[in-house]
Design a protein that fits this description.
lipopolysaccharide transport protein A fold; 163 residues; mainly beta; 11 strands; 11-stranded antiparallel beta sheet; globular
């Protein structure tokens, strides 16, 4: 069995997110000139309370070595907390995070749950902006987007009987 590789991603990743970014994987390949880092084999990425698991994670950086895009592929599962303190968990086949926009794009068999009020979205593509609390969903192949809400019913007042 190949031992897990543990990478504390260089300081520029940590500074861009404001917290330490930790990536654990079976394999790593990086090309500093192209600004690409590829982690494969049972990848687990953590940052604060956020967690992402996938078969492959690719991190793209700009010329200043700041991350501009994270792409997770293959049996992706995740737990994220937004700037508005909303907690989400879910799974998909692809997840892309754009740190400059604070936006996640989930695609292919998306099942996303907002934990705090159990709002659940199933579709082929779901976008969540973590700053503005905006979301959108699309589906493919003429299949519907399915959204589930937990509704709180109003308590009815007992009728008084007067005779």
């Amino acid at each position: 069995m190949i031992p897990k590789l543990l990478f504390i991603v260089p300081l520029f990743f940590a500074l861009s997110w404001g917290e330490e970014l930790k990536v654990v994987s079976d394999n790593f390949k990086g090309d500093q000139q192209k600004g690409i880092s590829v982690f494969t084999g049972d990848v687990k990425l953590t940052k604060g309370s956020d967690e992402l698991n996938a078969s492959k994670v690719t991190i793209f950086t700009d010329k200043d070595k700041k991350p501009v895009k994270y792409v997770a592929e293959g049996d992706v599962s995740f737990y994220i907390v937004t700037e508005m303190k909303e907690r989400y968990k879910g799974k998909s086949q692809v997840a892309i995070y754009f740190p400059n926009e604070n936006e996640y794009h989930f695609s292919k068999k998306v099942d996303l749950i907002r934990i705090d009020d159990y709002r659940r979205v199933k579709g082929d593509k779901v976008i969540v902006n973590t700053v503005y609390g905006q979301a959108s969903a699309e589906s493919a192949n003429n299949e519907p987007v399915v959204m589930t809400f937990t509704l709180q019913e109003k308590k009815s007042k007992a009728k008084s009987s007067t005779k």
